[in-house]
């Protein structure tokens, strides 16, 4: 396939330091050469070298920028095309100006995701790897990043290919049975098919169970901070946000009645929700506070239940404890700097499965322990990044479910003794659905839709 030459700013907008403009396509080197003045013409430098020089306006001779230019010739590049990366120091204005020159002298502005789309279309990445690049761009924490990286390296693809291989063997076996019906192989066939289908189904199930974790890692654990008024919910939220790297997100941070913040606590992405706002602004009666908490609780992955250690348990505390029971909860006995009136030992004895952490947010005590408890809850062997294949992409999850359904149909057919050529159709369908995950059988429009999700310059 023959492509034109595209260009875009490849570094985040508005950030200081160096900005990179990426140019890819058959004319990439020639286009930048029209503007570049250095020791050598870029067309004569070795591949995979960085070259110092200046960009000048070819008409006026005016210097535009001092630059370092990387030249990478096809095919050992991200897009498998000639790629030139122009590193400029200047701020946003000068970077945009350089881009304008590059566009004026022969490149076209890349569409979002077009570099990665080319990597895919030129056979450099398969579809699930390309999608992982989307996830990578959006990854909110280091751990989510690791998982996305593994996918880029093709872990999921490898597994899917293996499953498809199993299905192909099954299909081949059926072909033989159909072609040589005189052989009395029905019995053997039945068992062989059943075993293969069960095996593939088990693998798909395993992948699907990782899907939920994958989703959590990408979007953050919905973490509800609950407790009656004045126990320190807002203080806790603020402390967690200040202590930890707040996660940049395009999701609006503040809604009318609840406050939400995204933070990364020891590798666990949390979407913190303070349910207090509604009470403090509207001063509603206690019962409504519990009602509201109940709603948030239903959606929460993790509950931080804040208590005031300086006061005995109240009825509302008890009500909240009852609500939180059976969910992933951490009790926080706050205000340890004050005279204690809450029997934390008795409380822990009543709820032995719920960790209880003592804090004084005012004096910055106990926050480390709290963060450790949060991390323990989620990484105590439950999620061991590095040795699992995660599925976290909703398109993959949907396709896995469809493939599983087809396998189930095949198994049901085998059970009922329907002719193998009918079973064959279901198995083939499963094979196709798995294929769609790695980009076999995908229609052009699906590809366009997927790649348009990318940021510009990737
Ligand atoms: P919320 O209503 O649960 O959100 O509670 P706030 O976070 O608004 O805190 C209520 C009051 O308790 C504020 O005056 C805080 O400064 C105070 N507070 C919060 N944490 C502590 C603590 O650890 N010790 C003490 N002594 N006061 C605290
Ligand atoms: Zn508050």
Automatic annotation (TrEMBL):
PROSITE patterns xref list: G_TRME
Cofactor annotation remark: Binds 1 potassium ion per subunit.
Major localization listed first in the record, in broad terms: cytoplasm
Enzyme Commission number: 3.6.-.-
Superkingdom as given in the UniProt entry: Bacteria
Domain TrmE-type G: residue ranges: 220-379
Keyword GTP-binding: yes
Keyword Zinc-finger: no
Cofactor section: K(+)
Ligand binding ((6S)-5-formyl-5,6,7,8-tetrahydrofolate): 22, 85, 124, 458
Subcellular location: Cytoplasm
Keywords: Cytoplasm, GTP-binding, Hydrolase, Magnesium, Metal-binding, Nucleotide-binding, Potassium, tRNA processing
GO molecular function: hydrolase activity
Assembly information from the UniProt record: Homodimer. Heterotetramer of two MnmE and two MnmG subunits.
Entry-linked NCBIfam families: mnmE_trmE_thdF, PRK05291.1-3, small_GTP
Described function: Exhibits a very high intrinsic GTPase hydrolysis rate. Involved in the addition of a carboxymethylaminomethyl (cmnm) group at the wobble position (U34) of certain tRNAs, forming tRNA-cmnm(5)s(2)U34.
Family in the record: Belongs to the TRAFAC class TrmE-Era-EngA-EngB-Septin-like GTPase superfamily. TrmE GTPase family.
Identification of the protein by name: tRNA modification GTPase MnmE
Source species of the chain: Caldalkalibacillus uzonensis
């Amino acid at each position: 396939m023959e492509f034109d030459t595209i260009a875009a700013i490849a570094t985040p907008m508005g950030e200081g330091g160096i900005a990179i403009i990426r140019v890819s396509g058959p004319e990439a080197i020639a286009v930048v050469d029209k503007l570049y003045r250095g020791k050598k013409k870029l067309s004569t430098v070795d591949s995979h070298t960085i070259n110092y020089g200046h960009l000048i306006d070819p008409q006026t001779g005016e210097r535009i920028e001092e630059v370092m230019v990387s030249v990478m010739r096809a095919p050992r590049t991200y897009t498998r095309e000639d790629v030139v990366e122009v590193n400029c120091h200047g701020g946003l204005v000068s970077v945009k100006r350089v881009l304008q020159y590059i566009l004026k002298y022969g490149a076209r502005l890349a569409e979002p995701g077009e570099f990665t789309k080319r990597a895919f279309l030129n056979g450099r990445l398969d579809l699930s790897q390309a999608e992982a690049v989307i996830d990578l761009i959006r990854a909110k924490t280091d751990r989510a990043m690791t998982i996305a990286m593994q996918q880029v390296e093709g872990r999921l693809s490898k597994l899917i290919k293996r499953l498809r291989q199993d299905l192909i063997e099954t299909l081949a076996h059926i072909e033989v049975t159909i072609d040589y019906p005189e052989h009395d192989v029905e019995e053997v066939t039945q068992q062989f098919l059943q075993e293969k289908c069960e095996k593939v189904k088990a693998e798909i199930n395993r992948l699907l169970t990782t899907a939920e974790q994958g989703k959590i890692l990408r979007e953050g654990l919905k973490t509800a901070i609950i407790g009656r008024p004045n126990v320190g919910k807002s203080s806790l939220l603020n402390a967690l946000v200040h202590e930890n790297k707040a996660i940049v997100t395009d999701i609006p941070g503040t809604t009318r009645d609840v406050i939400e913040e995204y933070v990364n606590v020891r590798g666990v992405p949390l979407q913190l929700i303070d349910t207090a706002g509604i009470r403090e602004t509207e001063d509603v009666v206690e019962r409504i506070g519990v009602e509201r908490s109940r709603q948030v609780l239903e959606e929460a992955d993790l509950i931080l239940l804040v208590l005031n250690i300086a006061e005995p348990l109240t009825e509302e505390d008890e009500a909240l404890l009852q609500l939180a029971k059976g969910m992933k909860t951490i009790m926080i006995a706050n205000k340890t700097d004050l005279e204690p009136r809450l029997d934390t030992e008795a409380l822990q004895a009543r709820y032995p499965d719920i960790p209880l952490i003592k804090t004084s947010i005012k004096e910055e005590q106990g926050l480390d322990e709290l963060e450790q408890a949060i991390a323990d809850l989620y990484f105590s062997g439950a999620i061991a990044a590095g040795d699992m294949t995660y599925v976290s992409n909703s398109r993959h999850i949907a396709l896995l479910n469809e493939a599983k359904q087809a396998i189930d149909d095949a198994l049901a057919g085998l059970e009922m003794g329907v002719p193998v050529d009918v079973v064959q159709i279901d198995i083939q369908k499963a094979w196709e659905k798995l294929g769609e995950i790695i980009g076999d059988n995908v229609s052009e429009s699906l590809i366009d839709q997927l790649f348009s999700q990318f940021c510009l310059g990737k």
